[in-house]
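Hallway conversation turned thread

IA: we were arguing at lunch whether anyone had actually written out Peptidase M11 gametolysin domain-containing protein end to end. Turns out nobody had. So, for the record, here is the sequence (554 residues) and right after it the structure tokens. Reply here if something looks off.
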Amino acid sequence: MRSSILLLSSALALALLSGAWPQGITPPGQEKKLLAQGFLSAVDDPSGETEYAITDPKGHKSHSLGKGIARKPKRDKDGNALEVGDYISAYCTPDANTGQCSSLTESDFILINRPAPPTATGVVQRVLVLLGNNPNCNVPLRNETSLEYLRVRYFGADNSGTDPGCIARQIEECSYGNLRINNATTDFFMVTPECWATDVCAGYYDIDARMRAAALAIGVDPSAYERVHHVVNAPNCGWSGAAQTPGTIVWLRGWAMDGLTPLHEMTHHYYRWHGWAATATSAGVSVEYKDGSSYMGNGYVCPSAPQLANMQWASPAVGGGAVTSAVLPPGPATSAPFMLPATYMTGAGAYVRVLPDWVPGYYLEDGVTVSNTSARNLYLEVRRSMGADWRMAGQAWDGSVIIHDVRADYDLFPNVANFSRDHRSNFTGFVPPNSRRVMPEQKLVIYVGTFQGDKASVLPVYLCRYAGSDAECPTLSDVLGLPKPSASPSPSPFPSPSPSPSPSPSPSPSPSPSPSASPSASPSASPCTNPKACKVKPKRSLRSLLGRRTGPEA
């Protein structure tokens, strides 16, 4: 004890002489002050330089922590890991001379709680749209569009929000009414902000602060709105748009007010990640932003099944929420058909989620923990170029079952993946009607029948798993009850039932997460031991095919 007192006294004496205080010791009269309290939010930049901030719950104040992963606090003073979406506080010891905080360390942060991601259902937004215009800066920050154009893009020519292609109608249809913009309370103003950096890309929160100040200068209070969209000129910036996750602020370029960027950024308030896919020049390697089947990639269409599921905009088909070995017996049996409606039509019963735990290596040696390196779950959905997906016309997968794979260990609890763990939703491929596709990595065969229903927008989908070869599973003709081919060759309207090419390799895994519990299987329809008995009769109404459900399952 005596030696400890002597050491502390020596440290204090040294601090008095040098003016430098040891870490963890606050000088007399310089108590820590609360710097910020709120959500740890992220603004992901295409350059990879994410900007982190602490944002108050209503989004009225944001304290930027800076750009780059080094700026993200990793732990708090008690050693708790900190993740995007956490509710935290930051304290600092101000400089004795300036009264300002020069830097923050882990000892300055406190984890208050870890709330669930903000709900993306039943949301009606009141938005303030600010158009920046300052031609008097060194590099003029002239507006890149007009207020009238913005009004039309958001709500259509008649301001009703019902015009096909306007932002309000698109986001409402893609979310099945869960996310709407209030046309009566959303306002548009042009403001003249103080000049921001033009020789380099200005920080997001530097732009935000100047735009808010400019709004206040003309009598507009941004804090009276639930969301703020800044439409700005940002020289030397590589982005067309950006958004807080979680948060309330969107940044947009005036030339990027098309049908993709605003929807993409608005959705980032609830879901952080992008769609991946291999390209013609990527040698089979998946690339971020390249999924053309979702506006969270580079498509002009609604989100894909993994994204719809994460935001709870869609529910699985009956028995299709967790297809595991306990649900799907090995071939030659197949599942009973999952009747999947095209997602333009409804989110209820709109996808099948396959957890291929029969594949060696899906679990670690303990037989419980899902592998964090190779295990990939599958999501199956039907897409047609109708409704909000009308711009899918001409794509190879239009009118097919689309397959996405996701990182399985992050797919156990979808909400966890919303902000902190990228489950890497990857476009794997597609299966046209009346065809069969083999998924070698999942040891799975997917069979797709003919469009059904009065809108010809429902496809029957069957599954079969195998141990060694897809020959263990039945042929397409056996499953769909198609006529047997004649001995003499003749043209056939159906694709060959031979296996399709292997899907694109999965993207490189992220760092290992904490071990997770084994997924639980959801109830399933009985398997078909006689595949022909599963044949679905055509000419059935949409209601009879889908049942009387009008909303997603709980």
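OS: looked through it. The chain has nine helices and 22 strands.
IA: good, adding that to the notes. Residues 1-26, 487-554 have pLDDT under 50 and may be disordered.
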